[in-house]
Design a protein that fits this description.
It is built from 3 helices and 12 strands. It has 284 residues and is an alpha+beta fold.
């Protein structure tokens, strides 16, 4: 494998995983539909024929397993103020290590819990909202970006609306896992220490966003320079694809809020000089 905006005030802050706090309601999680399993791949080295009078070296079979993915849903609601939460998220299975599998699923559910907790903590608790018949909502969906034998990458799109808000806000988040260790992949961990990967991501993102805006009849100068500058926080919602780093920009971060959330794909070829030669991007 070679090497997507001044944040809108309507977009709730999504924080790092925390334990879900009780808000006068009970959250339930249910496994729903399962995606078709991604087939496992067995790599068998070619048969070695021994020379006369010698013994052939034993052959070995290397098994590489890709995760099966099912869908579960976190559901919670409450009153005073009225709110509801409905977030779909993936559950992986079929990995060679049950420990790694459990660790990955735990980190996913912790992230979902933290988003729900952040939402409830940030609800407008003034009397007008508490007495409103309208409900504040947090809805989330996921998309698997990559699921091969080495990396599991998933993007989440979270939409929030409040009882006293006319429009919804969209936040993009992501999780990327190293399947050989069950650990989260960090963006800096994909590149060589001291490399200019953030500058490349910033440059390519601004270029692509300018093109997207122009295609919609919006001035290219509307790209938010602050929200696309070479800072790790601006590219936290990244996903690994087979040939790029996909970056998600939440509503109001990189382009005018009226455009919504946007994504860009920075080719791995543009990042080639910065990629860690011992990291997952260099070892497809």
């Amino acid at each position: 494998m070679r090497v997507p905006i001044q944040r809108s005030s309507k977009v709730w802050s999504i924080v790092a995983p925390l334990l879900l706090a009780s808000c006068g309601a009970t959250a339930t999680t249910a496994t729903t539909t399962s995606t078709a399993p991604i087939s496992s791949t067995t790599l068998v080295p070619p048969t070695v024929t021994a020379a006369p009078g010698s013994t052939a070296a034993p052959t070995t079979t290397v098994v590489e397993v890709t995760p099966k993915v099912a869908t579960a849903t976190y559901v919670k609601s409450g009153s005073s103020p009225n709110y509801s939460i409905n977030i779909s998220y993936p559950v992986v299975s079929g990995l060679l290590s049950s420990v790694d599998e459990t660790n990955i699923n735990s980190q996913i559910t912790n992230a979902v819990n933290s988003w729900a907790q952040s939402f409830t903590q940030n609800l407008n608790l003034n009397s007008s909202n508490a007495q409103s018949t309208s409900s504040s909502t947090l809805n989330g969906a996921f998309k698997v970006i990559l699921a091969d034998s080495k990396i599991f990458s998933v993007q989440f799109v979270l939409q929030t609306s409040t009882a006293n808000s006319a429009t919804a806000g969209t936040t993009i988040s992501s999780l990327n896992f190293n399947l050989s260790s069950g650990t989260l992949l960090s963006l800096p961990g994909l590149f060589k220490a001291g490399s200019d990967f953030l500058s490349i991501l910033s440059r390519d993102s601004r270029s692509q966003l300018s093109q997207q805006l122009t295609a919609q009849g919006v001035a290219a100068s509307s790209v938010n320079q602050s929200g696309t500058s070479a800072l790790p926080s601006n590219f936290a919602a990244f996903n690994v694809t087979p040939n790029s780093i996909m970056v998600g920009f939440s509503q109001g971060q990189a382009v005018p809020s009226s455009i919504g959330a946007v994504t860009v794909n920075v080719p791995l070829t543009d990042l080639a000089s910065a990629i860690d030669p011992n990291g997952p991007l260099a070892n497809p």
